[in-house]
Amino acid sequence: MSDPQPPQNGVTLQVRGLRKSFDGREVLKGLDFEVQRGKVFVIMGPSGCGKSVLLKHLIGLEKPDAGEILIEGQSIETPGVRDHYRLALVFQSGALLNSLTVGENVGLYLSEHRLKPPAEITRIVSEKLELLDLKGQENRSPGELSGGMKKRVAIARALVIEPQLILYDEPTSELDPLSAVNIAKQILNLKNRIHVTSVVVTHERELAFGVADRIALMHEGRLLAIGTPAEIKQNSDPLIQQFLNADFNLK
Amino acid sequence: MFQNIGEMLVLFWRTLSAWPHLWRERRKVFEQLFEIVNASLLMACILAMFIGGVLSLQTGPVLAARGLSGSIGGLVGLSMCKELGPVMMAVLIAGRIGSAMAAEIGSMRVYQEIDALITMNINPIRYLVLPRLAAISVALPLLVIFAVLVGWMGGGIVANVNEKIAITYQTYFGNLRQVVDLGDVLNGLFKSFIFAVVIGVVSCHQGLQTIGGPRGIGRSVTKAVVNSIVLILILDYFLTRFLLYFEK
Prior knowledge:
The complex is a heterodimer. Chain A is of the alpha/beta class. Chain A has helices spanning 51-59, 81-84, 102-106, 108-112, 118-131, 147-160, 177-194, 205-211, 229-234, 238-245; strands at 13-22, 25-35, 40-44, 66-71, 74-75, 87-90, 165-169, 197-202, 214-219, 222-227. Chain A folds into 2 domains: 13-86 and 163-244, Rossmann fold (3-Layer(aba) Sandwich); 97-150, no CATH class. Chain B is mainly α. Chain B is 83% helix and 0% strand. Chain A binds chain B through residues 56, 59-61, 83, 87-89, 91, 93, 95-99, 108-109, 112-113, 157, 161, and chain B through 104, 108, 111-113, 115-122, 127.
């Protein structure tokens, strides 16, 4: 029987005055927020409001025009900070490498950085896959997996990094309700088991209110409100109410 | 195309900087090498056989009419190893392998696989470009050796069988051995090595620059092949001028 994992500490994340434009069009218009250690912070908003662009800045795939991102009070642009803290992003599409098997995808970080011997990597990969109900899927190709399975493999790949900050880009989009609930459970499970700080970007209200400690509502590159799920529900801003109360009751 | 040359030089420099990691990436290099040779060897041999044949067919009767049929071996031999072998194989590989490299890396770019590598702190140049560039740099000269040998044979068969030329294999290969020396073969191999680097860098660069969906991938593939061929033909002239300085 393996030893229980020691609790890991998440990190604090602060975003200050973040701005970004593409071809003269401002996509992020000065964002400020803070995520506390070990909490789930959900950024919610309609499609195209800049959520995924924000996430790319947090992981370092984009550089801001102005503003800064701080992890534990240190700018991520400071040399060595990004290497010091372990960050992981679960892509909306999964972004699994199609040329590799599921097992190779999950163990890629460890094998490429030569952090563990091959036998140990195999064991860790099996353990992470089992954690996400994917036991025995190591040798399958990503092309053979369903959308929900791909997302769970992507989460397993992120877990191998033993992240202190995990970012989820639309983790339940294109999934059936059962798979979506399963992913949401995994997000909470990871928060409780390894105390990771989580940032979830989504446009799905049920997911947001189901997992969030705090929610930020984004609209056209600005944050309209930040608060607990209860505070957001009570917010009287018409745009927020319109977003929260939209339904299919058309007949 | 020319606006990208600076970016391609930067990519080439970064790939060279990752060179110390080549031994670590040897498995990927061998996989790529096998893929390139496996995909191209038969086609290269067929192409070379007919190029050698048509060289004999075009020049043989003219030389024979002037009593110079004994020189066909040298003519075909030199043309194949110094010019047609390297250039035709490079064009073939640009179409067959360069396009595949651009498409594979392009689709990895479009489907965020490269972003995933970056978030895992894995350098895409070391992971993707270095093994491909190393493999093609070895594979193209290897294919050229095969192509030159097969091209010489193709030329010999036509020179022997065609009734307007009708020289013996002994005469053909005797003249070839007299005219072609190791320096001529190395000349062609050096060219093919440079062409391989050009194909690898251009194709990987186009793949990494891909934006959009499947149309973007298609555009990258077309640009990779066209730019590679244009650069190969331009470079061929300057390389030939450069190499002529070393000949006696």
